[in-house]
């Protein structure tokens, strides 16, 4: 168990900046998720923490000590790789023992640790098999076991579940969460899957274009995204986002985006700039209501497509040229091609000015 | 169906054609002197072992075989000893001008033997390597290195780099990664390279003839080629000796075949 601190980490590959000025503190016992689209630099950041890659600038500190000059082996970290990276010529037992043997741990310590990890992961019957005789899920467990036996200060996971099929991924996700709670270990987990990020982490660090866009607890990242990228990246289907212009209209403000027109009440306007300006407005599909709720803005839309997900429906609509997705929980006589009235609760709106979130004041009277 | 028949015929014809000279030598080796000189030729031998006795004992074949084994064996070991670290470095480590080095290696192996025979002879002369078995091993190692490095480098490149990352996190330096992870997984490549080097060194004639002039040190190809007959070319002895010289090579290849199985790295990464 340990605390990790990154100070102004930058990394370039041949003039190409991959990471720009990343500063981050991962407290002891935290399960921190590095979330971002592929190519955003999150795996590079993990490799820099591991010592497999050297940063162009900045420092990595573990428990307050700078570790930049230390090779991976001396940083006391364990890493689980996307492709498992089990040693194919060694049995499961030898795979688990490998790192301990390299550290010249005494025989009985190795045996105890293997027995412990094997029991925790329920892989005792597999100990004498070779990796090629294991299923994907079993290989995944062995890969985790190899990290657990080390009792490292820090666990690093590089998209460990992305090679499993959907069902197995869900069950491994739950097991991983339980494992983290049991070990009380500091874990850093890289993924591009926002569901994994939301369910596993107690902290999400959204990375895009080599920069940290938001570092927050999962609920806040969902309910108060720091910028339009985070807003659209977290949540399925993504948040509806419209880029438009804002104009004064008496004491109110009017928002235009294509054919979509919303009149924002005076209280909202006071949080926004007084002059005409460009603004990005967003609302999550599940926040859009089909019934008239208090303090909401009505919108007339044409239904283009209805996706029935079983538990709920996704209604893809269009207002003039502007697209809009709403989530509804039952079929209310909506049909494709028909007109529909949607209500956008003012308090559920997200506003972004110059790519930054603007917190709107809560509206209490309509 | 017709295509498969055609394919089978083609394969049989090719195999038959390439084996024909060897088959004829095998048949000849079991003939007697009169059968060899018979006209029209006697197709089927009587099964005489006289030529084998003559080749082995009168022509000191064991002596040549021993020399060949020494030279080919040490060539293989030495070439691998140098090729393995070189190939690993070229495949995996950051070496400036990596591609250039690999291309240069390929160019080096393109020189015709005649062009380098003189310089090699002079070099060995000044080193005192003429008429020494190690004097033959030296150019053999140099000549087989490019091929060995190319084969090994391409095998090392195929191994998933994640395995090496895992090994580094687990506490391995470059040398222990090479010996504990890369080499065990590259066994098929190592055996492939070893067999090709062995075959080259076992069969090489030109440099062996140039460098070793004493019969006590000569290798099989030269020794057999220089068999002396009293009045005629000793075809029967030549045939018998050639068969004997080929057998160890076939044996080694068959023995090593079970190591040259690919797919050994299966299970390392997602299968």
Annotation keywords:
heterodimer, A: 366 residues, alpha+beta, Rossmann fold, OB fold (Dihydrolipoamide Acetyltransferase, E2P), six-stranded antiparallel beta sheet, 36% strand, elongated, B: 271 residues, mainly alpha, 0% strand
Give an overview in words.
The complex is a heterodimer of chains A (366) and B (271). Chain A has 366 residues and is of the alpha+beta class. Helix content of chain A is 25%, strand content 36%. Chain A has a six-stranded mixed beta sheet with strand order 6-7-8-3-9-10, sandwiched between helices. In chain A, β4 and β5 form a beta hairpin. The longest helix of chain B is centred in the N-terminal third of the chain and has 32 residues, at 61-92. Chain B folds into two domains: 1-48, no CATH class; 49-257, Orthogonal Bundle (MetI-like fold), CATH 1.10.3720.10. Chain B is an all-alpha fold and 271 residues long. Chain B is built from 13 helices and no strands. Chain A binds chain B through residues 47, 50-52, 71-73, 77-79, 81-89, 98-99, 102-103, 130-134, 136, 139, 146, 163, and chain B through 160, 162-163, 165-173, 176, 181, 184-185, 264-271.
Q: How many separate domains of chain B?
A: 2
Give the biggest beta sheet of chain B.
Answer: none
Class per helix and strand makeup of chain A:
alpha+beta
What does the overall shape of chain B look like?
Answer: globular
Distinct helical segment count of chain A = 9
Chain pair sharing the greatest interface = A-B, 32 and 24 residues
Oligomer: heterodimer
Overall average pLDDT of chain B: 87
Q: What letter string, H or E per element, gives the SSE order of chain B? A: HHHHHHHHHHHHH
Q: Total number of helical segments of chain B? A: 13
Report the β-strand fraction of chain B as a percent range: under 5%
Output the CATH topology of the largest domain in chain A: Rossmann fold
Average of per-residue pLDDT values of chain A: 91
Under CATH, the homologous superfamily of the largest domain in chain A reads P-loop containing nucleotide triphosphate hydrolases
CATH classification, class level of the largest domain in chain B: Mainly Alpha
Largest sheet of chain A, if any? 6 strands, mixed
- Run of helices and strands of chain A: EEEHEEEHHHEHEHEEHHEEEHEEEEEEE
């Amino acid at each position: 168990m340990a605390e990790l601190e990154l100070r102004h980490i930058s990394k370039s590959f041949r003039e190409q900046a991959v990471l720009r000025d990343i500063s981050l503190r991962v407290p002891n016992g935290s399960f921190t998720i590095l979330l971002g689209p592929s190519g955003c630099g999150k795996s590079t950041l993990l490799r820099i923490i591991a010592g497999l890659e050297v940063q162009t600038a900045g420092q990595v500190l573990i428990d307050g000590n700078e570790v930049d000059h230390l090779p991976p082996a001396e940083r006391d970290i364990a890493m689980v790789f996307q492709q498992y990276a089990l040693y194919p010529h060694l049995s499961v037992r030898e795979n688990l023992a490998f790192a301990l043997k390299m550290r010249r741990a005494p025989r009985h310590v190795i045996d105890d640790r293997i027995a412990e990890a094997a029991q925790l992961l329920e892989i005792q019957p597999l100990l004498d098999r070779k990796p090629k005789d294991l299923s994907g899920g079993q290989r995944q467990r062995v890969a985790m076991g190899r990290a657990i036996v080390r009792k490292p200060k820090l666990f690093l996971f590089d998209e460990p579940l992305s090679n499993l099929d959907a069902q197995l991924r869900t069950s491994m996700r739950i097991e991983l969460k339980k494992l983290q709670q049991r070990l009380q270990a500091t874990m850093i987990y890289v993924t591009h899957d926002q569901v994994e990020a939301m369910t596993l982490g107690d902290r999400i660090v959204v990375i895009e274009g080599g920069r940290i866009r938001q570092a927050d607890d999962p609920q806040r990242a969902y309910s108060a995204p720091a910028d339009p990228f985070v807003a659209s990246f977290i949540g399925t289907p993504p948040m509806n986002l419209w880029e438009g212009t804002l104009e004064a209209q008496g004491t109110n403000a009017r928002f235009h985006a294509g054919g979509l027109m919303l009149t924002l009440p005076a209280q909202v306007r006071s949080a926004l700039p007084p002059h005409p300006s460009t603004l990005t407005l967003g609302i999550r599909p599940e926040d859009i209501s089909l019934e008239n709720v208090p303090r909401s803005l009505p919108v007339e839309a044409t239904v283009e497509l209805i996706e029935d997900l079983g538990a709920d429906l996704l209604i893809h609509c269009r207002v003039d040229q502007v697209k809009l997705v709403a989530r509804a929980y039952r079929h209310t006589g909506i049909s494709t091609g028909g007109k529909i009235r949607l209500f956008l609760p003012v308090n559920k709106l997200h506003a972004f000015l110059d790519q930054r979130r603007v917190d709107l004041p809560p509206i209490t009277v309509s | 169906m017709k295509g498969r028949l055609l394919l089978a015929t083609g394969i049989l014809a090719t195999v038959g054609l390439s084996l024909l000279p060897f088959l004829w030598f095998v048949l000849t080796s079991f003939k007697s002197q009169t059968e060899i000189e018979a006209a029209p030729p006697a197709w089927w031998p009587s099964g005489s072992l006289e030529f084998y006795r003559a080749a082995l004992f009168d022509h000191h074949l064991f002596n040549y075989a021993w020399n060949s084994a020494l030279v080919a064996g040490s060539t293989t070991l030495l070439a691998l000893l140098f090729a393995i670290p070189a190939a690993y470095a070229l495949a995996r480590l950051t070496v400036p001008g990596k591609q250039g080095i690999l291309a240069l290696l390929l160019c080096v192996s393109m020189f015709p033997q005649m062009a380098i025979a003189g310089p090699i002879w002079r070099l060995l002369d000044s080193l005192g390597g003429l008429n020494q078995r190690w004097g033959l091993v030296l150019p053999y190692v140099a000549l087989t290195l490019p091929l060995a490095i190319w084969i090994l480098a391409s095998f090392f490149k195929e191994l998933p780099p994640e395995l090496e990352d895992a090994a580094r996190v687990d506490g391995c330096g470059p040398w222990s990664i090479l010996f504990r992870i890369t080499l065990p997984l590259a066994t098929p490549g190592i055996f492939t390279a070893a067999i090709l080097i062995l075959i080259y060194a076992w069969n090489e004639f030109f440099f062996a003839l140039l460098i070793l002039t004493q019969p006590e040190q000569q290798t099989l190809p030269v020794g057999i080629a220089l068999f002396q007959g009293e009045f005629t070319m000793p075809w029967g002895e030549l045939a018998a000796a050639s068969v004997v010289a080929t057998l160890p090579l076939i044996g080694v290849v068959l023995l090593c075949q079970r190591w040259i199985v690919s797919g050994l790295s299966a299970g390392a990464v997602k299968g």
